[in-house]
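Hi everyone, sorry if this is the wrong subforum. Our group has a chain we'd like a structural model of before ordering constructs, and none of us has done structure prediction before. Sequence below.
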Amino acid sequence: MLLKNLGIHQAWMDQAIALAKVAGTVGEIPVGAVVVNPQGEAIATGVNRKERDQDATAHAEIVAIRAASKVMQDWHLTGCTLYVTLEPCPMCAGAIVQSRLSNLVYGADDPKTGSIRTVMNLPDSAVSFHRLEVLAGIRELECQALLQSWFEQLRQPKR
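Answer:
Right subforum, don't worry. Here is the predicted structure as tokens:
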């Protein structure tokens, strides 16, 4: 079902990429997220805020899920889709399952901590009671390039 709407997914991922760029400019790892309701409207966004908030849980996905839950006035986000530029880590994968999101669309695989398909598969594992549709690789090259250039700049010596 997710494959039918490729143009829509690319458009929402473009918004997540724009958010990620903003996060990168303020010193956060450039990851952005958008939650879209069943009617196709963006109801929440998130960017990494770990440094700004001094909060290890302030990943883009968690920030967006918290905001979407407030908008929906319910922690069940059934029918909603989360768009995120990077494959979620174990913490975020757990939050996605717990929040009952129906769909996850992400850009780049995370070969170190990816917990949807790359390193492990939390949503399809025996510990997960909730299944969701996953579509990976939307705007993958753009998402990878954004992260790679940000980390390259971070590693450059300060003048």
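For your construct planning: The CA atoms of residues 151 and 157 lie 12 Å apart. The radius of gyration is 15 Å.
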